[in-house]
Amino acid sequence: MKYSELKAIRTLCDGLFSTPDWREVFDNIYDKEPDFEVDGVRFIDADCIDDIQQEELSGDEYMLGCFNSWFLADILGIDEDVILAMQKAEAFEAIGKLVLSMGKLEELQKEYAAADGYGHHFNHYDGEEEELIVGKAHYYVFDNR
């Protein structure tokens, strides 16, 4: 790895609130880890982030049912009033199961990421995301403080 790439890793780490150990970050990037955390900062390879987000979303049916009614109605092709009625009845898990059973998880995740970016999902502190590009490695970075 070039000196300029090492410097980019250190500069990013020093600029984050949690200031992760840049050497440990380097080691993980060098080892091509697709998803790792150092000192409260999560790094996810750009080539893997959609799959990781889909996996996390698929494990929480309740959360899948909590998206805006108009968003879910558009993804599922169901009238928004039906979604609203289900949400008012607190049938969030049922909506989530519907998303999964209709095979709409990938579409939901891609639209979610396109609308809100990745920070809203992966950074529970402030929803922010950073990017780190060193050589051929491209990571999204989430400082969860």
Helices and strands, with pairings:
Blueprint lengths: L2 H13 L6 H9 L4 E4 L2 E5 L3 H10 L2 H4 L4 H8 L3 H9 L3 H10 L3 H12 L2 H4 L7 E5 L2 E7 L2
Antiparallel strand pairs: 1-2, 2-4, 3-4
Helix pairs in contact: 1-2, 3-8, 5-6
What proportion strand? 5-15%
Average the pLDDT over all residues and give the rounded result: 95
Distance between the termini: 28 Å
Count of helix runs:
9
Order of helices and strands: HHEEHHHHHHHEE
Main sheet makeup: 4 strands, antiparallel
| Order of strands, widest sheet | 1-2-4-3
Overall number of strands: 4
User: How many separate domains make up the residues?
Assistant: 1
Shape: elongated
How does this model look, in words?
The protein has helices spanning 3-15, 22-30, 49-58, 61-64, 69-76, 80-88, 92-101, 105-116, 119-122; strands spanning 35-38, 41-45, 130-134, 137-143. With 145 residues, it is an alpha+beta fold. It has nine helices and four strands. Helix 3 crosses helix 8 and helix 5 (69-76) crosses helix 6 (80-88). It has one domain. The model has no long low-confidence stretch (mean pLDDT 95). A four-stranded antiparallel sheet has the order 1-2-4-3, with helices on one face. A hairpin with a 2-residue loop joins strand 3 and strand 4.
What are its keywords?
single chain; 145 residues; alpha+beta; four-stranded antiparallel sheet; 9 helices; 14% strand
